[in-house]
Each structure stands twice: as structure tokens, then as C-alpha cells.
Amino acid sequence: MNQTTQLGATVEEAISLALQKLGASRNEVDVEVLQEGKKGFLGFGARPAEVRVTVKEVDSIIEKSEESHQTESDNIAVKEVVVDNIESEDEAVSEKQQEEDPVEAAKSYLVDIAKELGIEDLQIKAVTEGKNILLKLESEKAALLIGKRGATLNALQQLTQLVVNKSAKSFLLVKLDVENYRERRQAALEQLAERMADKAVYTGKKVSLEPMPSYERKVIHNALANRIDIETYSEGTEPNRHLVIEPIK
Predict the structure, then answer these.
(1) Cα distances (angstroms) measured from residue 183 to each of 11, 124, 133, 187, 216
(2) Class of residue 224 by CB neighbours under 10 A (exposed 0-12, middle 13-18, buried 19+)
(3) Rounded to whole angstroms, how far apart are CA atoms 107 and 160?
């Protein structure tokens, strides 16, 4: 076998697998990238990398090998240049990592994700206060960023949290909001809390709410904290953990 087509998560992985299959080293083959890999978003739109790897003719390998032979002094000079270049590149990468702003990293990440969702007009305003970062998002397609009951927004917030703290020197807490959705959602949850508490007291039976993320359950806990005729607690496991309102008899 002197040629193979191979899939992989990345181009490098595909090349590595192809070399193993052919029993050849990297300088003994020609590589043609047929398709770049793509991670996709939340599991959608992902595609593998694909390469075609061909073993070079023996004469070509020998010819390149002969061309690569140099005098000892030349080899030393080349090695010194290579080492200098590597050190310079390492210093540049190190400086880039040190200078990378977590907020800018988050903005860049969100813009890329938005484009995957077909959103080209995303505007982001960052408000930083201590270890808290609020990223306010605006778009004509705001509904796509929010999702059903904020599911997409919550997922984006968790992912952005990881991106920010990968670059940050100390832990930072990230909050995402789209056109004041969080404030409107909190007001809606507080109203829901009062209605369901009244229902529990009126019927004398506990009321179970739909599954919610922990911070939304906390909003309801806080909204009902001063009521003496009911108690609230959570049941179940994530992502189906939900809040229960029970009347005190």
C-alpha cells in the first residue's frame, strides 16, 4: 500500500493515523488535505478532517536525503538559527498568553459561536466589577441567543465561564444577559413563586415546579423566604432538579 485516505478529529490526527497504516514516517510521504476538521457547536455541525497520504517514490526520498547533507559548520549554523527561531516563537507565545485579556477572549468566543448560529450582528458590552464580569449581548436575533426559557443563554454562560477562566490569573464569575432577559426572567419567577405558594396554601398540597437551573431555584427560594405559611426545598438530580413548595400545616 502506497496511498491511503484517512479521517480524524483534526488534520494532524488524520495524518498520524495514516502514517501508522502505511508504516511510513512524515518525511517519506506527501499529504493532501481534503477537508479541514470542524468542532461544531453543542454537537451540531461537526465534521472530521480528511487527508490523502501518498508514500513518495524511493528515488525522490534518496534525492532529498542527499540534498539535505551539508558540511558540519553549515549544520551547526542552521541549528543555531532554528534554536533562535524556536526561542523567539516560544517567547512570543508566552507573551501572548500572558497578555491575553479574559474579557476579550470571551467576546471573541461568543462572536464565533454567534456566527455558527447564523448571527452576524452580535454586539457585546462588558461590565467588570471585581471578580464579576457581566457581558451584555445585543442582536436582531436575540431569541436565538436566549432559547426556550433561557436554555441556550445558560449553556453559553457556562461555556464562556470556562473560556474566561482559561485565560484569567484568578477565578472570575461570568454572567451573560441578552436585552435584560435576566431581569425580566427574575421578575417572572418571583411572580410565579407567589402564585404557586398561594396555590399550595389554598389546596393544602405541595406544588412541584418545572426543572430549573440552581440560580433560578434560588430566586424563588429568596422570593418566598419571608413567608411563614410555606417552605421550599429542591428535589431530584440535575438537569431535572426542581423546586417544591409545601404548605405548613
Answers:
(1) 44, 17, 16, 6, 11
(2) buried
(3) 9
Strand extents, DSSP E, 100-198: 123-129, 132-138, 173-178
Per CATH, the architecture of 102-179 is what? 2-Layer Sandwich (3.30)
Longest distance between any two alpha carbons in the chain, whole Å: 95
Burial class (CB in 10 A: 0-12, 13-18, 19+), 50: middle
Q: In this predicted structure, what is the pLDDT of residue 25?
A: 75
DSSP 194-219: HHHHHHHHHHTS-EEPPP--HHHHHH
What's residue 31's pLDDT? 85
* Bridge partners (DSSP) listed for residue 202: none
- DSSP E strand boundaries for 11-167: 29-35, 49-55, 123-129, 132-138
CB atoms within 10 A of CB 223: 18
Q: What is the pLDDT of residue 88?
A: 53
Give per-residue burial for 206-220: e unless 16+ CB within 10 Å, then b.
bbebebbbeebbebb
- Cα separation of 173 and 162, whole Å? 10
Q: Do 22 and 31 contact (CB within 8 A), yes or no?
A: no
In this prediction, residue 63 carries a pLDDT of 47
Please check whether the domain covering 183-247 is classified as CATH 3.30.1370.50. Answer: yes
pTM of the model: 0.52
Mean pLDDT of successive 10-residue segments in the chain (249 residues)?
A: 77 79 75 76 63 69 44 44 47 51 89 88 90 90 86 87 84 89 90 93 93 88 92 87 90
